[in-house]
Amino acid sequence: MGITVFIADDQAMVRQGFGALLSAQQDISVVGDAPNGRLAVDEVLRLRPDVVLMDVRMPEMNGLEAAERILSASSGTPIRVLMLTTFDIDDYVYEALRVGASGFLLKDAPAEELVRAVRVVAAGEALLAPSVTRRLIADVTSRRAARRPESAQLAALTPREREVLELIARGLSNTEIADTLFVAEQTVKTHVGKVLSKLHLRDRAQAVVLAYETGVVTPA
To answer: 0.85 cut: is pTM over it?
Structure first.
């Protein structure tokens, strides 16, 4: 059936432009859109798309609250939420990652990056790999005054699992991690699954946030 996408943005031109671009892909179909967060929640839970492109700031209900409601209410096949934002990245977007959003993308990103982002998120490779995303995550986390101390959860990780967590946080894909550690990609997938399970995390995005918060990695 391919990847189904829902677009939530208060700007009609953004909805139409992104919709036309994504609908032109053979493996992607846009099943709906909404101009505000409240309507987006209702429609997403009704349509259950694979990926939701969610604007950070919208009327009636902002993107963070809408994403949190969608992610907390979804069951069965996961709905992935990809936050859309402009250049003013701030803690608001960071909080979206904490509640389970799969990552974020700048609205002025090249067309091919948007398409790739949808495919990556739909495949479960949460948190986008482009270096700009890693830099923005690092910038946001470096401005947070307080960090949580390492939790007992982290102590449950083996040395190799902790190493994998660090590489995830640095933005590496499974293939890149496999090359770095000189192991098979399937082995990396197993390690990633164990990391998420032991830390009780939804996906790689939350793993990155936790890694920065606890000091497993620090912004360069």
So the answer is: no
